């Protein structure tokens, strides 16, 4: 499903955030991406839906080569991938409901399907009662849950989450993990960057450790395994 | 694009208008001021143009026939004037008619001359293009049996050069005004879009195509244009209605020139104002959003 070959990324300011990454992730896998702050986790993730482009190397998503993908086709790539952004990226002028609905509107779903699906996922993340509120009226954790709701609302085959529990209290974090577990059980690939040792060590999945733009460890049912 | 997506864009653009409160107000104000200026200006220009046309149309060439010319040569001369290139129409006025005109203007005393009419027979000709009156007059002057050809030398040259300059100045002013308007408005709209640059970036990251993002902005520009046209249309219409009511009867007495009729002129001006508002709004949005779509 996802394949990276010798991916190298140097930002315009000279920082090398990926220094030769080779990795393969299969359909249906659940992968934790861990590593110290500034290690290159977000960069690694951003290259998958082409928010960032590698300086060299190739990335394949479902057989599509992202290096040669035309700009006009990028929206169609992004629709197959649900992304929970580290900084949420909610539309400030739209309320909770509209933010989540947006992901369905771009794929021109019927109003009925949109209404049902949006209420369904808002219920799932526990924000049904705040559907009419605007992002600025929400706490960080609530905004994060809206971002999660939006990422899964169109049932993508791949969900990429950048620290989806970063702003959540332990109880809500576990609830969110349950949601991810559930959609993973239905065959969705999940890639999750996290600093949450407890979660990684409790719900065991494949762990990819990124340090200094390199994958330094990659093991199935691994442990968080380093001090930060 | 599906109908429901079109509906969504439609609703979205309206929502954006109301949620962007003062930005909408700023843009609409800019459009309003500009369209008002353009509207008043077009109104003045079109009327000046009409007056110029009226004045031009009154310019005649008076061809005074030799006293010695007999009936046959007068008919021949008429034919020749008609065939002179650039002549639109010719009218014959025999010396009896000329005398009658004088009697009308200066009184019955002149009837004395009816026995021994000292006047010439006259042709009145008009040039197809009034601006070429002078050349046409000179050509007629070269024909046989013409005693004298008059066309208001000097006076009409000055009239024409005045009319031409004012027409050109008006055109330049309108163009300059339009250009400023476009600049002003696309700038205001750009500010509202810069404020939403992050929105555009997010929409793209969530899988929206460029057109999906662009269309609501373009529709929004259209609304701004339409909203901005309301006050100018109302004011220009009221203004012209009142001016026309006061000025037109006075001009009608002079019989020299008239204002353009209220209808259909005012509808044309209003349509122009509306069209320009929409074009400016749409164009401004389109140009401004273009820059931010490269995410
Ligand atoms: N847009 C950018 N321009 C320049 N440098 C960047 C940019 N984004 C990230 N970097 C740099 O690249 C490196 C990796 O950043 P990245 O965001 O991938 O780290 P991370 O592992 O996600 O960290 P964290 O755990 O804090 O989220 C950092 O040194 C950062 O300063
Ligand atoms: Mg990060």
Automatic annotation (TrEMBL), chain A:
Q: Which SUPFAM superfamilies match?
A: P-loop containing nucleoside triphosphate hydrolases
Q: Where in the cell is it found?
A: Cell membrane
Q: What does this protein do?
A: Part of the ABC transporter FtsEX involved in cellular division.
Which family is this sequence assigned to?
Belongs to the ABC transporter superfamily.
Q: Which GO terms describe its biological process?
A: cell division
Classification via SMART domains: AAA
What is this protein identified as?
Answer: Cell division ATP-binding protein FtsE
What is the first-listed, main subcellular location in coarse terms? membrane
**Is Cell cycle among this UniProt entry's keywords?**
yes
Q: Which UniProt keywords apply?
A: ATP-binding, Cell cycle, Cell division, Cell membrane, Membrane, Nucleotide-binding, Transport
Q: Spell out the subunit comment.
A: Homodimer. Forms a membrane-associated complex with FtsX.
Q: Name one GO molecular function term.
A: ATP binding
Pfam families in the record, alphabetically? ABC_tran
Q: Does the keyword Nucleotide-binding apply?
A: yes
Taxonomic source organism:
Psychrobacillus soli
Q: Indicate how the chain sits in the lipid bilayer.
A: Peripheral membrane protein
Q: Name one GO cellular component term.
A: plasma membrane
Q: Where is the ABC transporter domain?
A: 2-228
Automatic annotation (TrEMBL), chain B:
Protein role: Part of the ABC transporter FtsEX involved in asymmetric cellular division facilitating the initiation of sporulation.
Q: What is its main location?
A: membrane
One GO CC term on file: plasma membrane
What's the protein here called? Cell division protein FtsX
The protein's topology relative to the membrane is:
Multi-pass membrane protein
Residue ranges of domain ABC3 transporter permease C-terminal in the record = 172-288
| Coiled-coil region | none
The record's family statement is:
Belongs to the ABC-4 integral membrane protein family. FtsX subfamily.
Protein source organism: Psychrobacillus soli
């Amino acid at each position: 499903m996802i394949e990276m070959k010798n991916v190298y990324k140097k930002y315009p300011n000279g920082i090398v955030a990926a220094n030769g990454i080779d990795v393969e992730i299969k359909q249906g896998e659940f992968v934790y991406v861990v590593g110290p702050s500034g290690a290159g986790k977000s960069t690694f993730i951003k290259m998958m839906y082409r928010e960032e482009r590698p300086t060299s190397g190739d990335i394949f998503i479902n057989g599509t080569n992202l290096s040669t993908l035309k700009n006009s086709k990028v929206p169609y790539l992004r629709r197959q991938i649900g992304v929970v952004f580290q900084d949420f990226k909610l539309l400030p002028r739209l309320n909770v409901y509209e933010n989540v609905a947006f992901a369905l509107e771009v794929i021109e779903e019927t109003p009925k399907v949109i209404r049902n699906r949006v209420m369904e996922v808002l219920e799932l993340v526990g924000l049904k009662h705040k559907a009419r509120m605007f992002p600025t009226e929400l706490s960080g954790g609530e905004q994060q849950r809206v971002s999660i709701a939006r990422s899964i609302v169109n049932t993508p085959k791949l969900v990429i989450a950048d620290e989806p529990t970063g702003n959540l209290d332990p109880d809500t974090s576990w609830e969110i993990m349950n949601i991810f577990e559930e959609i993973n059980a239905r065959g969705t690939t999940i890639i999750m960057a996290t600093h949450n040792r407890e979660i990684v060590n409790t719900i065991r999945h494949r762990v990819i450790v990124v340090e200094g733009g390199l994958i330094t460890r990659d093991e199935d049912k691994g442990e968080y395994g380093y001090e930060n | 694009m599906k109908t429901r997506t079109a509906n969504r864009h439609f609703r979205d653009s309206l929502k954006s208008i109301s949620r962007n409160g003062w930005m909408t107000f700023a843009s609409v104000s800019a459009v309003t001021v500009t369209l008002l200026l353009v509207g008043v200006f077009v109104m003045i220009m079109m009327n000046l143009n009409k007056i110029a046309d009226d004045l031009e149309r009154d310019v005649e060439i008076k061809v005074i026939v030799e006293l010695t010319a007999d009936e046959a040569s007068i008919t021949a001369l008429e034919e020749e004037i008609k065939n002179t290139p650039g002549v639109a129409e010719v009218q014959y006025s025999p010396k009896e008619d000329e005398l009658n005109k004088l009697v009308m203007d200066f009184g019955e005393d002149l009837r004395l001359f009816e026995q021994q009419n000292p006047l010439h027979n006259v042709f009145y000709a008009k040039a197809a293009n009034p601006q070429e009156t002078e050349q046409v007059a000179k050509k007629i002057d070269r024909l046989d049996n013409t005693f004298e050809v008059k066309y208001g030398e000097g006076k009409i040259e000055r009239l024409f050069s005045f009319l031409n300059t004012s027409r050109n100045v008006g055109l330049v002013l309108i163009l300059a005004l339009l250009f400023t308007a476009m600049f002003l408005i696309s700038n205001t709209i750009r500010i509202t879009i810069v404020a939403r640059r992050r929105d555009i970036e997010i929409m793209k990251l969530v899988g929206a195509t460029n057109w999906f993002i662009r269309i609501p902005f373009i529709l929004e520009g259209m609304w701004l244009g339409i909203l901005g046209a309301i006050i100018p249309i109302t004011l220009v219409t009221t203004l012209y209605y009142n001016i026309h009511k006061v000025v037109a009867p006075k001009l009608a007495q002079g019989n020299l020139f008239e204002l353009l009729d209220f209808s259909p002129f005012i509808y044309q001006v209003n349509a122009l104002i509306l069209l320009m508002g929409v074009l400016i709004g749409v164009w401004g949005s389109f140009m401004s959003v273009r820059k931010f779509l490269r995410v």
